[in-house]
Amino acid sequence: MNERLRSALIQRGITPEDLATLCDVDPKTVARWIGGRPPRVRYRWMVAKHLDMDETYLWPDPQPKGGRAPGLSGSGFVAAYPDRASVPREMWISLLLEAAQQVDVLVFSGTFFAQSNPHVAKMLAQRAEAGVRVRLCFGDPDGQAVALRGREEGIGDALAAKIRASLTYYRALITSPNCEIRLHDTTLYNSLFRYDGDMLVNPHLWGQPASANPLMHLQQSTEANWFDGYAQSFEAVWHTARPWTIDREESGSDA
Q: Where are the alpha helices (H) located in the chain, listed in sequence order?
């Protein structure tokens, strides 16, 4: 079952019959696409266009004629975007809703994560209640790494303020089952967003905000690949981070 295609149709209010008409194919053909059979290249393009979504999200491994680019075979690489804003909003939401085992987030402030989806905290709580392990790791607003990053971006203490503001969205999650929030004080080379076997990696360029930097979509596989390296990076930072305590942060911000 292609859950992403099925979810996209539901979100857009488009029936399989409607899609069949738009693509000039038999409804049974669309049913096979939803059932997991990938369409031909030209139909993938047509479906993505009609749904206003990224083709590589609907079919992460299309295996175009001629195979992957040299050096990418087995890497787990799915797609790349010129900047974080180019990632379809529906992709962020669908990956979160589809997560069945874990959701891991590693950022400094992650302000966009809540601002682009006002219901993200509620959705995370729902996933946690369904048994999904949710781990959110933000930069320590009082740490040296955040202070340095603020100076490098030319925004000074504004980054620490953004982190404190961003954390307010997640207050209710502290008491949610299966949900943990920690603060790290490490050099952050990439922002990471993991949803089970999918990961969005947002590399950081020196002096530039994360939103202006490229983003890669990776998938986990049975062989060692890029995904595993970034997953291990998250674990390393997570184990050095401290639990977020609201009382401590509020007393610290009042000092």
A: 3-12, 16-23, 27-34, 41-51, 55-58, 89-98, 111-115, 120-129, 144-153, 158-167, 226-240, 246-254
**Best CA proximity match to 98, nearest among 219, 198, 222:** 198
The sign of the dihedral angle between the CA atoms of 238, 185, 187, 253 is: positive
Burial class (CB in 10 A: 0-12, 13-18, 19+), 2: middle
Length of the chain: 255
State how far the Cα of 149 lies from the Cα of 190, in Å rounded to an integer. Answer: 13
Burial class (CB in 10 A: 0-12, 13-18, 19+), 169: middle
User: Is residue 61 classed as helix, strand or coil in its secondary structure?
Assistant: coil
CA distance 102 to 53: 24
Q: What is the pTM of this model?
A: 0.74
CA distance 56 to 200: 13
Q: What is the pLDDT of residues 138-173, one digit of tens each?
A: 999 999 999 999 999 999 999 999 999 999 999 999
- 3-class state of residue 206 by DSSP: coil
Structure confidence by residue, pLDDT tens digits, 111-145: 888 887 889 999 999 999 999 999 999 999 999 99
What secondary structure does DSSP assign to 18-48, as a single string?
HHHHHHTS-HHHHHHHHTTPPPPHHHHHHHH
Q: What is the dihedral of CA 228, 139, 158, 144, to 10 degrees?
A: -110
Q: What's the one-letter identity of residue 131?
A: G
